[in-house]
Amino acid sequence: MAEHHEEHHEEHDHMNIPKYIGIFMILVVGTILTYYAATIDLDFIFPGANTLVALGIAFTKMTFVMLFFMHVYWSPKLIWLSVLASFFWLAIMFAYTMQDYLTRDFGVFTG
Question: Based on the number of CB atoms within 10 Å of its own CB, is 110 exposed (0-12), middle (13-18) or buried (19 or more)?
């Protein structure tokens, strides 16, 4: 009976220890880059450039964690579809938030 179940078991080319360490080092470098980006004033480019750089680095780190540590890279198409749908939903939420934020007048908390 156990032999029948082993026939349908697929072997995936998952991560080994050196690959995990490589991804970990990418995350460490991303953390250091985020720190250094926060110490440099990038407002000469446009106001809020530091936030955009930090979010870009955070998005890159999140992508590595999701793809490799959460094994989405080796997952079936349905998992990929749910991941893409969650990013689409996140983009909708950001769009509504920015629509509200950008259409407000100057108030107590803004100059």
Answer: exposed
Number of domains in the chain: 2
Q: Tens of pLDDT along 32-55?
A: 999 999 999 988 888 878 888 998
Query: Domain of 55?
Result: 2-74
3-state secondary structure of 71: coil
The C-alpha atoms of residue 25 and residue 74 are separated, in whole angstroms, by 21
Rounded to two decimals, the pTM is 0.70
109 vs 111: CA distance, rounded Å = 7
Q: Identify whether residues 20 and 39 lie together within a single domain.
A: yes
Q: Note whether 50 and 90 are same-domain residues.
A: no
Helix (H) or strand (E) holding 6: helix 2-7
41, 86: one domain? no
Question: For residue 99, what are its two tokens?
Answer: 């629509």
